[in-house]
Amino acid sequence: MIRIAGLGLVALLLAACSGQTETAGAAQAVGAAGAPGTATVPGVPAATVAFEGGDQLSPKDPIVVKASGGTLQAVTVTNPQTGNGVKGDLSPDKTTWTSTDHLRYGSTYQVAATAVNQAGAATEQRGEVHTIKPSGVATPALFQSASGDFGVGLIIGLKFDHDIADKAAVEKSFKVTSSPAQDGGWYWVGKREVHFRPKEYWKAGSTVKLETTTFGMPIGGGVYGGQDVSATYKIHDSWIAKADGKTHQIKAYHNGQLVKTAPTSMGKTANTPPRGPTPTFNGTHTVLGKEDHKIMDSCSYGVCEGDPGYYKAPENWNVRISNDGEYLHENLKTVGVQGSDNVSNGCLNMNTENAKWFFDTFNVGDVVEVTNSGGPQLAINNGHGDWAISWSAWQAGSALHG
C-alpha cells in the first residue's frame, strides 16, 4: 500500500534488484532540503514530485522518485521499522532518483523528496511505500560450499527451506556458467532440493559459477524467493578410480593415465551370518570427505549394540564415498583376501600403504566408479549418486523439460 502527502501521485517503477539489505543509519539525502511545502514565483510553475509504479512493491524492485518541471534537490528514504536508510542514485539530469539498496519483505518505507523549479522555488513531497508480505519466504542454501577446489565429479545445487510449488519459474531464475563452456542441466531431487551436473564429468581446470536470482519472485502458494546465493567452484585435475568387484582391483587414473593399481576387498555378497550380504553399491561415487582416523560404528546405519553384526572399530585413512557408510580405508584384518575376495561390510578395504596413497591423493569431487560389486545402484540421495542417472533421465528431471 502507498500513502502520500503533499503534491503528486505515488507509485513504483519496476526494475531488477536482489538480496535483502539496507544501509544502517540515516537515509541518504540528495542536496539540501528546502522548506516544507511549496514556494511560488509568479509566472513560473511549481515543480512536482511523483513516486512512480504501483501498489505493494516487490522488494527486488527499486523505489523511484521523479520530478517534473524542475530537478530533485533532496531525497530521503527510511525504514522506521529498522531505523535504516536506503541509498540511491540520482540521474545525470537530476530528475530521477532510484534506490540501490535491497529492500525487505513486509516493510514500510517513508519517502521525503524536495524538488525545485526553474526559479529555485521548492516543493516537498512525502509518502509511504509498502513492500509485499508473503505467506512464506523460501531461502536457498548451497548444496556444496565453494571452499577449496574440487574433482571432475562435483555435483552442485541448492536446498530450499520451503517446498517449491512453481519449480519451472524457480529453475529459470538459476544461472550456471562454466569456463570452458559445458552442456549441463538441473534435476529436482524433491520438493526442496535441486542438483546440477554436466552431461559428462567437468573438464579438468574448469571454473563453474552458480547464481540465483530468486529473491522477490512469487514461487507458488503465496511463497516468495529469499536471499540469493552464489558460488564459484574451481575444478582441479581429473582423478578417477575404477574399482572392479570381479578382479578385486582398484585402479587410479590421473588425467586419463593409469598411475596406481591396488588390491581391494569390497562388501561381501555371500549370505553369511550374522548380517548376510553387505555388497558395495554399484555405480559412480564421488568423494564426499576424508578423515585420517575414525571410529567405524555400525549403529550409524541402524545396526546397534546387541544386534547381529554390530561392530565398532577404529579405522585409518578413510575416504568417504557415500552417505551410507561406504569408505575407501585401511583394514589390516582383510589384507589376506584383498585382491581375491569381497568380505567387507560395504567399504573398499586396502592395506596401509595403498589406503594412505588414496587418502593423500583423492579429494572432494574426485570420482570412484564401482562395477561388478553385486550390490544395488547407488541412489541419488546416498551421497552423489547423480552420475548413475542416464543423461536422458537427468534431463527429464528438469522442471523445464520433464
UniProtKB/TrEMBL annotation:
SUPFAM superfamilies on file: L,D-transpeptidase catalytic domain-like (SSF141523)
KW Cell wall biogenesis/degradation (keyword) present: yes
Pathway per the UniProt entry: Cell wall biogenesis; peptidoglycan biosynthesis
Region (Disordered): 263-282
Enzyme active site: H329 (proton donor/acceptor), C347 (nucleophile)
Protein keywords: Acyltransferase, Cell shape, Cell wall biogenesis/degradation, Peptidoglycan synthesis, Signal, Transferase
Comp. bias regions, Polar residues: 263-272
Molecular functions (GO terms): acyltransferase activity; peptidoglycan L,D-transpeptidase activity
Signal peptide: 1-26
Classification via PANTHER family: L,D-TRANSPEPTIDASE, L,D-TRANSPEPTIDASE YCIB-RELATED
Domain L,D-TPase catalytic: 239-371
Protein name: L,D-TPase catalytic domain-containing protein
One GO term describing the cellular component: extracellular region
Source species of the chain: Amycolatopsis vastitatis
One Gene Ontology biological process: cell wall organization
